[in-house]
Amino acid sequence: MAQIKNIGVFTSGGDAPGMNAAIRAVVRTALYHNIQVTGIRRGYEGMIHGEMGPMDRKSVSNIIQRGGTILKTARSDGFKTVGGRKMAYNQLVKNGVDALVGIGGDGTFTGARIFGQEYNIPFIGLPGTIDNDLQGTDFTIGYDTAINTVIDAVDKIRDTAESHERLFIIEVMGRDSGLIALRTGIAAGAEAILIPETKNNITALFDRLERGRKDKASKIVMVAEGEEAGGAFEIGRQVKEKYPNYDTRVSILGHIQRGGRPSCMDRVLASRVGVAAVEALLAGRKGEMIGITHNEITYTPFEHAVKHHVDINPNFLKIVEILSL
Ligand code: F6P
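Above: the input entities. Below: the C-alpha cells describing the complete assembly.
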C-alpha cells in the first residue's frame, strides 16, 4: 500500500451546518500526521474542472462555528458520466492528490462508489446532510442544527396560531425522508406528522382531526417535503375543503433549515468523524462512510450507506398520537 501524501477534501450535494467543522477536522488531522491537504471547491463539479489548491492550518481558522461550506458545494451532472469522472481523476493526478474525503449525502456516496470502482484512489465519506437519511450513523452532520432551527420557527408559528385559533400545516425538508418532520413534530407538540415512509397520510390526518379535541386553540401538522400527497399546499387544500370551519394556513420553512451556526452536537460529530476519516485512510481503509453508532466510530461501505432504508421508529408516531390528546 502506497503511503498517502496528499488528501483532497470536498463538500458535495446540499450543504449542512457542521460541514466547515468537518473540513477543519480533516485538514488539521492530516497536517498533524504530516500529510498535505488539497481543498477541492464546488464538489465533483470543481474536481472535474481542476478547482483545487493547497490548504493549511490557517485556511480552516475561525470556521468551526460557521454554517454553509467554505469549499462551496454543487450537484454535478458531469460526474455522472464516464468522461466527467475521467477528467476529475486526471485533475487529481495533476494536483498530486492521492486520497479523498468527501462530505455529503446520498449523491456524494453514489458518485464515490462508482469512482472507487473505476480508479484506484482511496476514498472515505463523511455523512453531511440535514436529512439524516444515511445508513451507518445515528445522526448526520447538520441534522441536529436543522431540527433546532425548525423548532425555533414552529414555536413562533405556534404563538400566532394560538392567538388566531388556527390550524397550521408546516412543511419541512426531506425529499426522501421524514426524519426531520418526525422528530420536530414530537418536539413541537404536533397533532399529526405526514412523512414519505407512511401511506394514506391524508386519511390518517382526517381521522386524527375527527377524533382529536375540537376545542384546541391551535393545531400544528408537520409535513415532510417528500410526502405522498404532494406537500403542504396540497394537504392544506384538502383540509380546507373538508373542514371549512377550520382557519387553516400553510407555511413552508424552506432553506432556512440548511443555514445557521452549527449546534454543539453537530460540531462535535463533525470533529470526531473528520479525525476518524484521516485515521481510516492511514489505516488503509477505503470505500466507506464514517459514522457514529451508539457513540462508537463505525465504517459502512458506500453501497450500504445510500440505500434509503433508514427505518422509521413506529414508536415515534405512536408518541405523537398519545401526546396530542
Ligand atoms: O440536502 C437535502 C435536502 O435538504 C432535501 O431534503 C431537499 O429536498 C433538498 O435538499 C433541496 O435542495 P436544493 O434546493 O438545493 O435542491
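Note for the figure: DSSP finds eleven helices and eleven strands in the chain.
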